[in-house]
Structures are given as C-alpha cells and as structure tokens.
C-alpha cells in the first residue's frame, strides 16, 4: 500500500466533484481538508464526505498533517498556489495545465527541485485502460514501427452549453490550451516526446453568442484563435497531425489514430479513461477490438495521485506537464511566425501502467 497521501485540495469548483468521487475510492489517499475563496462552496463540495475540514488557503498550506496539495484552481492561479505549497514543503498535483505559461511552469519545477518535493499534473486519463492498452499494442510491435498519428477534436464551441464561456476565448483559452493537454499527453505517452512543431491557426468570427443560462443571447469577444492545426515531429521520427477546433460542426474522424508499417490503431477518446482499442493489420480489411491489457480499471480523475503514495516520480508528472505546455506554446508561436519551432523541453516517455484496479494499485 505504501504510505497514504494526506491530501489538501485548493479550489472547489465544478471539476472538484469528479476528483472527490475518485479520492473517496482510493485507500492510498486520505483527504484531510479543502480550501476555496468561497468557503460556502467548499463546505457544499465536501458535505457528502465526513471528517473533511474546510480551511482558508493559508491555514491549509500551514497544516502539518497535509503532505500533498491538489491544485484545482483556475489556470491563472496554478503557479501561485503550487509555489505556495512547495514553499510549505508539500508535494503538488495540478489540474491541467501545469501553469498558464511555460515560464511559470518552469518556476514551479525549479522550486520543487530545490525543495525536494514532487510535482504531478493532469490529465491522468492517459493512465486508464484506453491509452495504456494502445501503448502495449505499440510496444509489442502489433503495428510495426510507428510512422504517424492523427489527433482530432472538433466542436462548434463551448458557448453553446457553458453559461459563462468567456475564459475559453481570452488568452490562455482556445481549443488547443483547453483540450490539447488530453490529446498531446496521449500522443507523448504513445510515441514519445516531441522535438519540433509546425503550426497554423485562425478564427472564424470576432464574437460568440452565449446559448444557455442567465446570460443567454449575450455576445462575448473572441481574442484567441479558435482553429489550430499542426504537425508534431516526435524525437522518434513519427509525425502526429493535430486538429483542435471550436469552429467546426462535427467530424467522423477517430479522436486518435496511430499508424505503423504493419497496422493501424484507433485509440479511445483521451478525455476518458477507458474505451475500445481497434487494430487493423496489414492485409486485413476490418478492424478488430483488442482485449484490455494495461492501465487502471474503473479509473477517475485523481488516480495520478497514487504514485505519490509510493514515493515515485508521478507518471502524470510535472516534466510531462511542462513538455505538453511547451508543445502547445510552440505550436501557437509557429502559427504566428509561419516557421517551424523547436520545442524547448523534453521528457522521458512515462512508465507504463500494469493492468489492475486503481483501488488496489501498488
């Protein structure tokens, strides 16, 4: 079992409910307290969970019982909260992205290294059976040498359903920074780190109209590109084509496909933990489902915390998180300059996850 993580959560917004449900099922994690600028919201978030205290952020950081902080604040506050936790001698696990900018993310990792604490970063969906089963298929040579991949996320825009979608359309938002971490983390897990990117981007309109909620009909400005596409050149030589869009109506393209000399894989939605992996072998017409062979079963957001319980570098870790952020920033820089851009960071391909239930993982 290792040593249970004694956890404090900062930020009790909508995403916290998914984390709380997972943490409640993990014997490796002991939730001590939560904090939020809105203490009533914090109390409501943990009302179903007996014994969890509600503290101010300074009191949570000072609490000697807590060894790890789960940072579920808005992206603009990720670096500030992470640095506070590190200064208090605590490990940190952040919702994606690790920070709002690569420069801030580097400050977090440098501070953690100096303090001797570990940093983890969502998404941990890559630890589920979907991406991990696909990884085993690649590592076992079922598609031969990997040559290319495609990753596609197309939607007409979150303003159609989100009552307050403003942050999706200001700097730090857009389809790439919103959904790209799921897709790029999966691509790096499957094919390894990225060396160079070539990007292009655009936007269809200057305003969006809110479609639901009390602000329905209100127009909001669009200050970022809403369609981003590019090629990721992996260190292995494989080429991944990425399309992230808030401008399209629909697509029949798989979320992710990986192509090799001997076969092609359809990989499940990287925003989910599970799903069926399909393999088409060279010379065969139809795709066949692969049996689940790796990853955490019945996983949910927060399973990345398990690695902290065993004292190891998190597989959903800070070095992967900053590499993914660098890839996204490099894509946007390439789109702006019209030139290829070298990715500043690199990372080790995260270690695989053996097949097993997350509640019993070791």
TrEMBL record:
- List UniProt keywords, sorted A-Z: Membrane, Oxidoreductase, Transmembrane, Transmembrane helix
Ranges that cross the membrane: 182-202
Every Gfo/Idh/MocA-like oxidoreductase N-terminal domain range: 6-120
Which portions of this protein are annotated as coiled-coil regions? none
UniProt GO molecular function: nucleotide binding; oxidoreductase activity
Which PANTHER family does this chain map to? Answer: BCDNA.GH03377 (PTHR43818:SF11)
Q: Please, which domain of life does this record's source organism belong to?
A: Bacteria
Spell out the protein name for this chain: Putative dehydrogenase
> What's a Pfam family in this record?
GFO_IDH_MocA
Q: What SUPFAM superfamilies would the database entry show?
A: Glyceraldehyde-3-phosphate dehydrogenase-like, C-terminal domain (SSF55347), NAD(P)-binding Rossmann-fold domains (SSF51735)
Per UniProt, residues of the GFO/IDH/MocA-like oxidoreductase domain are 132-265
